[in-house]
């Protein structure tokens, strides 16, 4: 590829990224403006920055803005986590909910919420710990003179089933507390407030910053272990580093919204269709597409059966399951 073609390709990808940013902005206003009371973009801006004495300001500031911010962070974290896992494992079916990362985070968070409710503020740390322990266990099971991505996927599916059994066991032994965690089990944003924003913000920010500084290493891993080693990359160390970052991102999302599935699977694929597989562009693009999809799906969840609200996880499952089956039938992936 000539330098001219490379430059044109870069300009094209930057333009696509700009489009994703515009979609993100539109999705943000749609999420804040729609609900039991519809608020126009002009009224949203006026209420936030100028006239803070209106009812609209109370609705936006106390209810919709924190919910929208959390939805954006959750979409970002799960999308980036999925993009990392798909790159590290070179498998299009990898995702935090598919290989057990989310299950580990969910089980640990559930233990805190049901058995140690007074320590609910430890949920993000517990979720990250659960995600990391699950990932390490998967890594250990898949290790045999190195880690083969396919073996890692199979080990992840098995561990995910095991962790799911643990979650079901806790719910069986404590049936009187199950009603309080139903939203967590299916992934919901209905009770989100500013406390959840402050909960997810530091962990998500750390993961995002760490990740955006090292996209080239993911590009190299995509070339295969032998090529990466030949280019001077310590494959196992680098792969393990990315898995830890993926665990941090997935754990922070699970700790506030619960077991929201399929975001980490479908968003990187949708983004890749438009911007390609270069992680220098794919990762920042996934931030905006992941945020937009979760914000829009949450808006649909609020409006579809209004005034009754359904968890956003149901909407994501309706979208994600067919997409997952589509991926299974595709030929020639990676």
Architecture overview:
The protein has 334 residues and is mostly helical. It is 75% helix and 0% strand. It is built from 14 helices and no strands. It has helices spanning 3-33, 41-49, 55-89, 101-115, 123-142, 149-173, 182-186, 194-212, 215-221, 225-230, 235-257, 263-275, 279-303, 312-329. Helix 3 packs antiparallel against helix 11 (235-257), helix 4 crosses helix 11 and helix 8 runs antiparallel to helix 11. The longest helix is centred in the first third of the chain and has 35 residues, at 55-89. The chain is globular and about 65 Å long.
Strand coverage percent: under 5%
Average pLDDT figure: 84
Distance between the termini: 21 Å
Helix percent band = over 70%
Shape: globular
| Class from secondary-structure proportions | mainly alpha
The count of DSSP E runs of length 2 or more, i.e. the number of strands, is 0
Largest sheet: none
Question: What ranges have pLDDT less than 50 throughout 5 or more consecutive residues?
Answer: none
The secondary-structure element order is HHHHHHHHHHHHHH
- As a whole number of angstroms, the C-alpha radius of gyration is 20 Å
Count of DSSP helices? 14
Tags for this model:
mainly alpha
